[in-house]
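thread from #wetlab-drylab

HS: before we spend reagent money on co-crystallization trials with nicotinamide-adenine-dinucleotide, can we at least see a predicted complex? here's what I'd submit
DV: go for it
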Amino acid sequence: MKRVLITGGAGFLGSHLCDRFIKEGYHVIAMDNLITGSLRNIEHLFKLPQFEFYNHDVSNYVHVEGHIDYILHFASPASPIDYLKIPIQTLKVGSLGTHNLLGLAKAKKARMLIASTSEVYGDPHVHPQNEDYWGNVNPIGPRGVYDEAKRFQEAMTMAYHTYHGLETRIIRIFNTYGPRMRLDDGRALPAFIGQAIRGEDLTVFGDGSQTRSFCYVDDLIEGIYRLLLSDYSYPVNIGNPDEITIKEFAEEIIKLTGTTQKISYKPLPKDDPKQRRPDITRAKEILGWEPKISRAEGLKITYDFFKNTVKK
Ligand code: NAD
Ligand code: UDP
């Protein structure tokens, strides 16, 4: 049986990855220190003999018994309010954590995939963003702790590939949403849906003209799975190119939820990227991947999930 280690396995994306690899017949080891994740996301897997959970901070030395075929490093705070609250831990898990896991991958002769991000492009001057763009990041701004940790993570991963011949994969993930996001994680979608359900106005930052491109989680997981099993070691963008302004996005949530609340405008956070849309030419060519789930479909599934979890 192939064995896969998924760090951040109790988080939003990590828990969906655990489900996918269990479904594909793998033995899954989830590792997480629960700093932003929750055991609720994986509690349905605890009864399975092919699932193990380690409560561990991967910024400290990582030890796993037995062989490992694949390591997927997803541990990291991912929402701006999370990484602003725990900036040092964010820098550590992207740097020290990545180094520990690369060391483990080398010792186990495992293939390692890292969860990088569209944030490596910063507030981009190239639109849409393709993988050859180097980005526009403020290293000492509030988002720098996340962006630079991820850029270091990519550099370290390429170095292990080049100098140690380690098999590595780098995915640059664009804004992804779906069930198991935390309602209080401050990201636009859970913030808006939570506000609509609680009967509060939807807080749009700035004038709402900044854009994002939202990908439904199942599409992303398929892209990760294909990239891991491919033989391509350079970065690949995975995201949905359907771009929308944040104001229009809030209006879609108002319509979807039927709320009578309005939009209330708040100051734009510092260094908030003005536009973001993935160029997915590479993913299409190399992985034969493109998103299948429209925003209308994905938002409906996500709203149904949140309706059952929000306390009015
Ligand atoms: P999340 O906060 O739901 O999950 C992250 C998980 O990592 C949590 O369970 C947390 O407890 C765990 N974790 C954090 N630091 C740890 C440490 N030092 N040791 C062990 N576990 C630790 O976030 P998510 O949205 O699922 O993001 C997962 C990964 O995907 C992150 O690496 C993030 O940077 C990346 N990513 C996500 C998105 C997105 O839109 N969701 C976009 C780009 C990149
Ligand atoms: N945003 C907003 N209101 C909120 C939360 C976020 O207008 O309550 C904006 C935020 O400023 C950004 C966009 O929505 O321009 C997406 O924010 P998110 O935190 O989801 O992701 P990221 O900025 O990391 O892409």
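DV: Residues 87-108 form the longest helix (22 residues).
HS: ok that's useful, forwarding to the group
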